[in-house]
Design brief:
The structure holds two protein chains of two kinds.
Chain A lengths: L1 H43 L21 H9 L2 H32 L5 H11 L4 H14 L6 H5 L6 H12 L4 H8 L4 H12 L1 H16 L3 H6 L8 H11 L5 H32 L4
Helix pairs in contact in A: 1-13, 2-13, 3-7, 3-10, 4-7, 8-9, 10-13, 12-13
Chain B lengths: L3 H10 L2 H6 L1 H39 L2 E2 L7 E2 L3 H6 L3 H33 L4 H12 L6 H11 L6 H8 L11 H29 L3 H9 L4 H12 L1 H16 L3 H6 L11 H11 L3 H29 L4
The chains are: A mainly alpha, B mainly alpha.
Chain lengths: 285, 318
């Protein structure tokens, strides 16, 4: 097979050029992906007067934290932050409980009507939020939750997608463990709590991260359900801040943007694995 | 010999006879069933009240005229006949499909390109570096992205036009001109979302069996042939999944155009969801808005169905 050797010798430099070209494309893409975030950070540290001067100082020499103090003076960002924390934490905790319980039952417990109920759950996953928002708005009003954080929290405590995610994970677990536990005299709930729920920690972490990312950033439901500024969550409050101010204080708005991103970035640093898991978790593997 | 679960499974299907033979089995099965219902109870209650019933109510409301203040009036299919002759609403669906197609095509092809390039790097840290970098935009909320992108794409003072000027290129009226505003929306969504498809494709490419790639290499297949004849077909189920998810999300585009342009200039970036929001929550026409919401659902279901049908020819399942 001499031709192969010749072909290989001819191809090798081409592969190297291709590899360098590929690296150039990757670095360009990385600059495009990171540039706007870096600009936001560096502009938030510049004095409001110089915020819109081009070219920007990509790495500011004098760090001016005055914009961060100004955000607290101009909007109740502390209150927004607290509201976002309350909403996100309660939804994450609630879905962890409801979805772990139901996901386990759909995977491991036999009861009449199981497949039919699960099919209905799967079908609701296809429905966009916008299609159900008006009835949810009406129900929220009937429950007396209008313009409160409860309007965001309570409708989000159960989830067909979360149930599906947890079920997929429990399906992979060996049934023998539970059977052994039952023979040893454990109750159904005991088997769930002491054996399977403990093994499900990675799936619970993935679901929690997915929910955190989703609800921390949520804009649509807060826009519709909340009226009083005291109840605003961060995304809604920041858009309000931008709308209320002239172009003079971009750096103040961007300081708010950075403040709102800090929890996501911190969580990403410590639990990057589960963010990545979360992306692939929904696909039918 | 039966294990206890097998006995329960049999007992739950064959009831009477087994119960006669083994009095305990029926009780055990019933106890397990009660446990199952208790476990799904919370999730079923929440999904029923806040998803299932709202779907039905939304469908029902689409046949009513309701201004929230006076009681709803049944008007049959009038909302839908009105919808199909309402130029503004129809145009918002057109805008939605146009933007969604642009977003999905770019997001999938760019995500695939970056994933293939990263996958071909040898060092683990290089892969980790790019994976982290391309994921970063997803850490910002859509509201935050809309805010800082609004500044960057500003036609007069924005950084992007500044750098275009430095390169000797003319300034682009990004959000000022209808067509460029649509392009800007596509670019901004893709900028943030490409990390999602990228991560999916990287994971999928990593699972392509190495023996297949070695066999191809021994047979003399070059980089491009290996990519298009082996890798892409092997990960085609993931490409389908990413396409469907990206499409469903893009069809619901709301935050970026609502925050950045309020649907403008004119109605160039008024998507179906913005049109529904204006009809329902600004003009208080809940019945008509429900009809728009139902049409959106139907279109999303149709597009998803078409994607799966098209995929039957293109997707390769191992």
């Amino acid at each position: 097979m001499t031709t192969d050797v010749v072909a290989d010798r001819r191809r090798r430099p081409v592969v190297k050029v291709g590899s360098i070209a590929g690296m150039v494309v990757l670095i360009l893409a990385a600059i495009v992906a990171f540039g706007p975030l870096l600009w936001t950070l560096s502009t938030s540290l510049r004095s409001p007067a110089g915020a819109f001067s081009n070219p920007p100082q990509w790495i500011p020499t004098d760090w001016d934290f005055g914009n961060y103090a100004a955000v607290f003076q101009q909007i109740p960002i502390g209150q927004f932050f607290l509201n976002s924390v309350i909403v996100t934490v309660l939804i994450v905790a609630g879905q962890t409980i409801t979805c772990t319980l139901s996901g386990y039952a759909f995977a491991m417990v036999s009861f009449p009507g199981k497949n039919a109920i699960f099919a209905v759950f799967l079908a609701t996953m296809m429905v966009p939020l916008q299609t159900i928002i008006i009835p949810v708005f009406i129900i929220v009003r009937m429950l007396g939750l209008s313009d409160s954080l409860g309007a965001l929290i309570i409708p989000a405590l159960g989830s067909a997608f979360g149930t599906f995610l947890m079920r997929q994970y429990f399906m992979q677990m060996p049934r023998e463990l539970g059977e052994a536990g039952r023979i040893d005299g454990a109750t159904h709930f005991g088997v769930f709590r002491h054996i399977y729920a403990r093994m499900a920690t990675p799936a619970i972490a993935t679901l929690a991260i997915l929910n955190f990312s989703g609800f921390w950033a949520e804009f649509y439901r807060p826009l519709i359900f909340l009226n009083a500024q005291d109840h605003f969550t961060l995304p809604l409050g920041l858009v309000g801040l931008q709308g209320n101010l002239g172009t003079g204080s971009i750096s103040v708005v961007l300081a708010g943007v950075i403040l709102a991103m800090i929890p996501s970035v911190l969580l990403f640093v410590f639990a990057q694995r589960y963010f990545i898991e979360g992306v692939t978790a929904g696909s039918f593997r | 010999m039966y294990t206890s679960t097998e006995t329960q499974a049999v007992a739950s299907r064959v009831t009477a006879q087994v119960a006669v033979r083994r009095p305990g089995a029926r009780r055990t099965a019933r106890r397990e069933a009660v446990f199952g219902y208790l476990m799904i109870g919370l999730a079923v209650a929440f999904v029923t009240v806040f998803t299932l019933i709202p779907i039905l109510v939304s469908l029902g409301l689409s046949f009513f005229s309701w201004d929230v203040i006076t009681p709803p009036q049944f008007i049959g299919v009038k909302n839908f006949t009105r919808l199909f002759s309402d130029g503004q609403v129809l145009s918002s669906f057109g805008v939605t499909v146009l933007l969604a197609v642009g977003i999905v095509v770019l997001q999938i092809s760019l995500g695939l390109l970056l994933a293939v390039l990263v996958n071909s790097r040898k060092h683990a840290w290089t892969k980790a570096f790019f994976r982290t970098t391309f994921y970063l935009p997803l850490l910002a909320s859509t509201a935050a992205v809309s805010i800082f992108m609004g500044y960057l794409f500003d036609a007069k003072f924005g950084l992007i036009n500044y750098y275009l000027g430095e390169l000797g290129l003319p300034a682009v009226p990004w959000l000022v001109n209808p067509v460029t505003a649509q392009i800007t929306m596509v670019l901004i969504v893709v900028w943030q979302q490409v990390g999602f498809t990228f991560v999916l494709f990287v994971a999928s490419l990593a699972s392509v069996p190495t023996d297949v790639l070695e066999a191809a290499s021994i047979d003399g297949a070059g980089t491009w042939r290996t990519l298009f004849r082996i890798k892409v077909p092997l990960i085609s189920p993931t490409i389908l999944f990413a396409t469907v998810v990206a499409m469903i999300n893009a069809m619901q585009l709301f935050d970026q155009p609502f925050i950045m342009t309020k649907g403008g200039p004119g109605t160039a970036t008024t998507t179906a969801t913005i049109s529904m929001y204006q009809t329902g929550f600004q003009n208080l026409q809940f019945g008509y808005a429900s009809a728009i919401a139902i049409l959106l659902l139907v279109i999303i279901l149709l597009i998803t169905g078409v994607q799966f049908l098209a995929a039957r020819k293109l997707v390769f399942y191992q």
